[in-house]
Specification:
Four Helix Bundle (Hemerythrin (Met), subunit A), 7 helices, 0% strand
Length: 168
């Protein structure tokens, strides 16, 4: 059974996917003023997970396009939402095997090659919270674009990721 914080990351991922689900491809390219495009935001979260759980932790860079389009500090870009959503899902699938192995003890180990000293547990919290930040940003962009039927609050956390004590 995964660590409870891994469950919370997965719930944040799920809600992030809900935030952009149904966005037309052409709207995924749009930038409103200084705001990022939805395609970039999805690439950015894929980059963040790939950087921590794959590249730094395991030496794997599965999807170079998320580095090109979504890395912090790079120039603004407007990648395809569909392509970045595909990359985001692939990164998650690859990262989940490693995340499933995390324990309370391993959460206190450093992320290798991190530009700032950061523990696995702090990184897990950072990525989870990063999802919530950008889910709100996507909903705001979609509101401005006039998209109907958007989520209004956090989804079914009690059903999908209820808090539980750590197993074992």
């Amino acid at each position: 059974m995964p660590h409870p914080l891994v469950d919370q990351l997965r719930f944040a991922r799920h809600q992030f996917g809900v935030a952009f689900a149904g966005t037309p491809e052409e709207d995924g390219f749009r930038r409103l003023g200084p705001m990022n495009s939805i395609g970039w935001i999805v690439a950015h979260l894929a980059w963040h997970e790939q950087a921590y759980w794959l590249t730094r932790a395991q030496g794997i860079t599965l999807r170079p396009e998320v580095v090109e389009h979504g890395a912090s500090g790079k120039p603004a870009s407007t990648p395809s939402l569909a392509a970045m959503a595909d990359a985001w899902r692939a990164v998650q699938d690859a990262a989940d095997t490693w995340l499933d192995l995390q324990t309370t003890a391993s959460l206190f180990t450093p992320i290798p090659d991190s530009p700032a000293p950061r523990l696995v547990g702090n990184s897990l919290l950072r990525v989870t919270d990063h999802y919530w930040f950008h889910a709100g940003e996507i909903i705001a962009i979609r509101q401005v674009l006039g998209h109907p039927g958007l989520p209004e609050f956090v989804g079914d956390i009690e059903g999908l990721a209820p808090w539980r004590p750590e197993a074992g």
